[in-house]
Write a structure and sequence with these properties.
Helices cover 34% and strands 32% of the residues. By secondary structure, the chain is of the alpha+beta class.
């Protein structure tokens, strides 16, 4: 399982509500992406940085969703390119559901190690 962390500048002067309203407009897009398992919308407490935490089955799925067109839309809205990092999500503790899930090693990690 892949966790993708995407960070970007919040548009200057925007309030939390403005950021949230902007985010609401992309809900249908992300709900329509059948490869996306989960997405969290984040805003740094000082409001300067926004982030998205995405759970994907593969890095390829993440890269398809965050293609050059998407990156350019972020640059246009925020004035800077987003930073994107990928992590091997190997263990999840979900206290709300009372579950612990351990995931197999991500295929991309295995390929890089060989």
């Amino acid at each position: 399982m892949i966790l993708e962390l995407v960070e970007f500048n919040s548009p200057k002067g925007w309030t939390r509500e403005q950021v949230a309203e902007d985010a609401r407009h992309v809900i249908p897009k992300w709900q329509g992406n059948k490869e996306l398992l989960r997405k969290h919308f984040l805003l740094e407490l000082n409001g300067k940085t926004g982030a998205g935490v995405y759970i994907w089955p593969s890095v390829d799925a993440a890269r398809r969703a965050h293609d050059e067109v998407w990156k350019q839309s972020i640059i246009k809205r925020t004035g800077a390119a987003p930073t994107i990092r990928y992590f091997d999500l190997f263990l999840l503790i979900d206290n709300e559901q009372g579950k612990v899930t351990e995931f197999p090693q991500a295929a991309e990690i295995k390929a890089d190690a060989a």
